[in-house]
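Posted in: Structural Biology > Protein-Ligand Complexes

Title: Requesting predicted complex, iron/sulfur cluster in pocket

I'd be grateful if someone could produce the 3D structure tokens for the following input. Sequence and ligand are given below.
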Amino acid sequence: MDTPLGSVLYITLGCAKNEVDTDRMRSLLTAAGYEEAFDPQDADIAIVNTCSFLASATSESIETTLELANEVQDGVRSCPIVMCGCVPSRYGDDLPDELPEVAAFVKADEEDGIVAVIDGVLGVEREIAAYIPQVKRTVEGAVAYVKISDGCNRFCSFCMIPYIRGRYHSRNSESIISEVRDLVAGGVREIVLIGQDTGIWGTDFADEDVADGSPRNLAQLLRAVAEAVRPHNVWVRVLYLQPEGMTDELIDTIRDTPEVLPYIDIPVQHCDARILKAMRRSGSRQELEDLFRDLRERIPGIVIRSTAMVGFPTETDDEFRDLIDFMDTVGFDYTSVFAYSREEGSLAAKMEGQVDEEVKLERAQEAMDLAESLGFAATAAHVGERAQVIVDGIEETEDGAELIGHAWFQAPDSDGAVHLDASEASVGDILTVEFTDSFCYELIGHVVE
Ligand code: SF4
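-- Reply #1 --
Done. Output follows.
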């Protein structure tokens, strides 16, 4: 490509699914002749890829957009802003009047048309090349998230995702495997499969949509992805499983497929059967405890991450105490804790018995304290072990530069990191490391080889 048509600043908020969407837009725009800007002052246009999972995430998305608009207006150059993702998907029709600072809005399911939008805002007139939609996704760094589905059919009563992202739809296995192969060829060392509900991948395919021998469920997809990466020493991790998705075939596949990490992420939200029912989820404390016991017995050494929500409408003190006792009994390695957020438009927002804000925050603090003590202990338990660590990058510290990586039991961006004593290594190297100390969720690692 000759002279770039312009430079684009990318700002991504929210979860890994949004990172994937930003990567896709960046790849499309790069192929269409735009370069990346890393500073608002150098950008001809900015893309803010937003999150609207919670009211607080929506506020952060809007604040970030307004800060950027103000920063740029006071600076030397002016730079139009395009808002993408979940906020436009959730509030689309109202936004142009409320946010005149934004030049264009692109809903999550319209992002493949980003080149035409940016061309339009910058006044670039041309036919968009036919090859653009086939552009391969590239990522910086050693880890790549790969979306295997979008949307959700569960309609949990507290969650707006099904309304923002639409009904569950699985991505076909050919396109997943092809993206995985491309990413691995580009140097990626860990593939993280994500979606709102990964465990039911494939269940929405009609028979005629699936070629003979192609994967039909998540277990089969994991085996196919593992086969695709096998010659390259690449890790495969799957996140966002729901308890009901844990079939025998999936558990056996995680245990028996060396590339697939023995790491399970199951957001339970609660353990009390009455609260789970009010959340429009299913199960009971007994069923969940049986599931996690079964997982630990069948996959020795498995690492388990979960999510707990406290202060859901009508949650009593006894039910909250039961959740605390449940977390302690299962002994999750990592737990994210949320205070229930009353999301406009959700069923739970209309329920009687909303829990007082102060009580919610007190319960969240107690649950977070427990999550930390379990997580810190689980991290410290690795001290003295040897394991492979993927090098993720270099961080500047007061004492100079330090190499940072993550071990198989640490999901990237979520579970802490390993601080390495080596100075000579590159992003993507896989090193054998002995863990010599820990602090909070972090480990200190001595590079053995
Ligand atoms: S499973 Fe429930 S919480 Fe998760 S995205 Fe779907 S509706 Fe939301």
